[in-house]
Specification:
GO terms for molecular function: kinase activity. This protein is an alpha/beta fold and about 325 residues long. The protein contains ten helices and 13 strands. Strands 3-2-1-4-8 form a five-stranded mixed sheet, with helices on both faces. Strand 12, helix 9 and strand 13 form a beta-alpha-beta unit.
């Protein structure tokens, strides 16, 4: 069984033919060019899909994109970086252009579906996916289905507040999970600490341009024994732990899958999180708890989008 997975980003449209057993069998990338308008972009997505369909028998299309998506997985509202897309029934627009059924979903939820169908999430009936990238996103899988909430917008894990006196991020208030664990906000926190330690090698490396500091630099330095880098990642891991405690106490889901660029720090981040969880989570919730790393990498969005199609049309 094969489906088309589409990852609509601000820079590129990525699309792939995905087999439910073999994974990606063919893929293409084309520039998004969203500035040319909604209809141009919808036509461009459809043309990209049509080019892939020629040599395959396809059951349907799954489309991952930024923004809030309706519960029926057809309509996106106010997606960032897509001019003119105030409220668009993207599923209908693509279906009309391709003669294939289509469903759409928020890109963070797509990551959870990728893990469910092709990643470490396959082993779990229910789990919460946390994506630590430029921001912090997530998706909730319950009984092997995506949990959407009452209006379709559940799973905004990055906007959960863990310290209302904390730093700002893209959330409407201070101290959210994203303000501590989103890539650019973690880098900002790290820059502040490194600037206070001019004898540290990280200061010598980035003092002239802290904007170039990325979490991967911290991970590399920590793996080389840099105590300050280890401390910065540990503090971030502790905040991840507090966030997870909130999610567990709220949802009673005990399996956590964490992916994204920041998560490449691995146990430098996860072990401090586990220590906080062991210390502060209510005892009955600890049974069966697991925190694991997802390593689907750049293919996760395409695999998740195809998983949406498999769930919807198989």
């Amino acid at each position: 069984m094969k489906a088309i997975g589409v990852d609509l980003g601000g820079t590129n449209i990525k699309a792939a033919v995905v087999d439910d057993k073999q994974g990606i069998v063919e893929q293409v990338t084309t520039p998004t060019r969203a500035s040319l308008g909604k209809d141009f972009l919808l036509d461009r997505i459809a043309e990209t899909v049509t080019g892939l369909v020629k040599n395959h028998e396809i059951i349907g299309i799954g489309l991952g994109l930024p923004g809030m998506v309706s519960k029926d997985q057809t309509t996106v509202k106010n997606p960032p970086n897509l001019p003119g897309w105030k409220e668009v029934n993207a599923a209908e627009e693509i279906s009309t252009r391709t003669n294939l059924p289509c469903k759409v979903e928020n890109d963070a939820n797509i990551a959870a579906l990728g893990s469910l169908h092709f990643g470490v999430g396959q082993q779990f009936e229910s789990f919460i996916m946390i994506t630590l990238g430029t921001g912090v996103g997530g998706g909730i899988i319950y009984d092997r289905k995506l949990f959407k909430g009452t209006q379709g917008m559940a799973g905004e894990l990055g906007h959960v507040i863990i310290d209302y006196h904390g730093p700002l991020s893209n959330s409407v208030t201070r101290g959210t999970v994203e303000a501590y664990l989103g890539q650019r906000f973690l880098s900002r926190f790290a820059s502040d600490l490194i600037s206070q330690n001019p004898s540290n090698p990280l200061y010598e490396q980035f003092a002239d341009n802290f904007d170039e500091l990325e979490p991967l630099d911290l991970t590399n330095a920590a793996n080389e024994g840099n105590d300050l880098a280890i401390e910065i990642l540990a503090k971030s891991g502790q905040r991840l732990g507090y966030a997870i405690i909130n999610y567990v106490h709220m949802m009673d889901i005990r399996k956590f899958v964490v992916g994204g660029g920041v998560a490449k720090a691995g146990d430098l981040l996860f072990e401090p999180a586990r220590e906080i969880i062991d210390k502060h989570m209510m005892e009955p919730f600890k049974e069966g708890f697991e925190l694991v790393y997802e390593d689907l990498g750049n293919e996760s969005a395409l695999l998740g989008a195809s998983g949406l199609a498999f769930d919807s049309f198989s």
